[in-house]
């Protein structure tokens, strides 16, 4: 399923995601005591491939997905279920690192784009 999603992303955008790794998953109690926060750290390699220019940059991506979860119990049946209330990424955990460039003329453009993405993500 995930490889199928990555294939669609590649066909639509020219962005290839590979070497995806899920690191140590943690579950922490929520501050309100009514749920928990599930944190999933992820690392991956991202290759940007543009139609005219070809492969221009390889990136290392690090991020932490956070899910707010709780357990709800149906009053009549007393059946409990886990409910995902919110899914987001920890904006301060997102890091893009340049692993390599294919076209020397685009170095400044790539650096600017990476810095811009990192800056925008830090403001969200």
From TrEMBL:
Q: Where in the cell is it found?
A: Secreted
GO cellular component, as recorded:
extracellular exosome; secretory granule
**Lipid-binding serum glycoprotein N-terminal domain ranges (all copies):** 5-123
GO MF terms listed in the record are: lipopolysaccharide binding
InterPro entries, alphabetized: Bactericidal_perm-incr_a/b_dom, BPI_fold-antibacterial, Lipid-bd_serum_glycop_N
Cite the Pfam families for this sequence: LBP_BPI_CETP
Keywords carried by this UniProt record? Disulfide bond, Secreted, Signal
Q: What is its main location?
A: secreted
Q: Which PANTHER family match?
A: BPI FOLD-CONTAINING FAMILY A MEMBER 2
| Family note | Belongs to the BPI/LBP/Plunc superfamily. Plunc family.
Name by which UniProt lists this protein: Lipid-binding serum glycoprotein N-terminal domain-containing protein
Organism of derivation: Bos mutus
């Amino acid at each position: 399923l995930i490889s199928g999603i990555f294939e669609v992303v590649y066909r639509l955008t020219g962005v290839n995601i590979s070497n995806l790794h899920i690191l140590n998953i943690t579950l922490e109690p929520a501050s309100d005591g009514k749920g928990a926060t599930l944190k999933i750290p992820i690392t991956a390699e991202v290759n940007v491939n543009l139609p005219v220019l070809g492969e221009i940059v390889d990136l290392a991506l690090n991020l932490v997905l956070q899910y707010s979860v709780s357990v709800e119990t149906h009053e009549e049946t007393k059946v409990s279920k886990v409910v995902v209330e919110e899914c987001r990424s920890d904006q301060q955990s997102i890091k893009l690192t340049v692993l390599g460039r294919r076209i020397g003329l685009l170095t400044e453009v790539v650096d600017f784009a990476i810095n811009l993405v990192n800056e925008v993500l830090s403001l969200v």
